[in-house]
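Below is a filled-in request sheet from our internal design queue. Each sheet records the structural input a requester submitted and the sequence that came back. We keep these sheets so that new team members can see what a complete request looks like end to end.

REQUESTER: design group, bay 2
PRIORITY: normal
MODE: inverse folding
CHAIN LENGTH: 256
BACKBONE (tokenized):
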């Protein structure tokens, strides 16, 4: 046998071994290796993935129960083709797998994809490399006269389901009429904080993020012009108070 033929045979052996580890029910073990030895590898690889996902998605794990959870992780392990070697990206790949299952019409809970994203966000934001303390701004600046700086570690989230409330005792089957608006942020103490927003505060942050360099007063007045509230003065005062509350939580870092 030539060196090339030997290399090709070894590569084929690796593919067969990996296929067996991922899905032993569909791919038999390798000839000449007793199943007791293969089981050590099967358990080691699967348990590593399951432990990572159980840590990243504790709510989903509790909702499904042990049997359904292990079945879901097993199908992810067997079916999903990941394109990253990073352990920190496994949660993101799991979320993508759930989205693909939903698109195929699998009978998962209707809120599962959004709940997975909500749980994944906490890890993703904890790994975000933005250094907010190094930003050039005035932390005590006037938020109306100056241009508020929204933290790059403040992510706006909008869901059909109230994902922050989902639990074993609350599992909605229909989406509410109004969406759930949240901002998840990492403050200067590196704490991850989820804050529920009303539609006005969500829109205020959304416009601020989309228009850096515009004064807080100009943004508020633009919102008043677009929404046409019955009491413009009350809305202006309320929006100004929101800006200050956002600063207290490091969602707004100051002004430029």
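RETURNED SEQUENCE:
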């Amino acid at each position: 046998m030539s060196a090339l033929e030997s290399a090709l045979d070894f590569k084929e052996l690796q593919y067969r071994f990996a296929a067996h580890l991922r899905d032993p029910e569909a791919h038999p073990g390798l000839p000449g290796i007793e199943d007791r030895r293969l089981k050590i590898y099967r358990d080691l690889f699967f348990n590593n993935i399951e432990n990572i996902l159980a840590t990243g998605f504790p709510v989903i794990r509790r909702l499904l129960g042990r049997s359904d959870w292990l079945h879901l992780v097993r199908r992810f392990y067997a079916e999903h083709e990941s394109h990253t070697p990073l352990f920190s990206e496994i949660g993101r790949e799991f979320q993508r797998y759930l989205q693909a299952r939903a698109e195929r019409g699998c009978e998962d809970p209707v809120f599962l994809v959004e709940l997975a994203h909500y749980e994944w966000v906490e890890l993703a934001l904890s790994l975000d490399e933005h250094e907010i303390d190094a930003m050039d701004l005035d932390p005590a600046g006037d938020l109306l006269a100056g241009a508020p700086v929204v933290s790059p570690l403040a992510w706006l989230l909008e869901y059909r389901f109230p994902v922050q409330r989902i639990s074993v005792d609350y599992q909605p089957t229909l989406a509410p009429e109004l969406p759930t608006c949240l901002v998840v942020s990492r403050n200067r103490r590196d704490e991850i904080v989820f804050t529920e927003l009303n539609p006005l505060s969500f829109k205020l942050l959304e416009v601020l993020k989309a228009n850096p360099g515009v004064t807080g007063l100009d943004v508020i007045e633009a919102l008043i012009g677009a929404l046409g509230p019955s009491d413009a003065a009350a809305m202006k005062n309320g929006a100004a108070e929101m800006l200050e509350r956002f600063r207290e939580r490091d969602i707004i870092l100051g002004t430029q």
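SHEET NOTES:
- The two ends are 71 Å apart (CA to CA).
- The chain has eight helices and five strands.
FILED BY: M.R.
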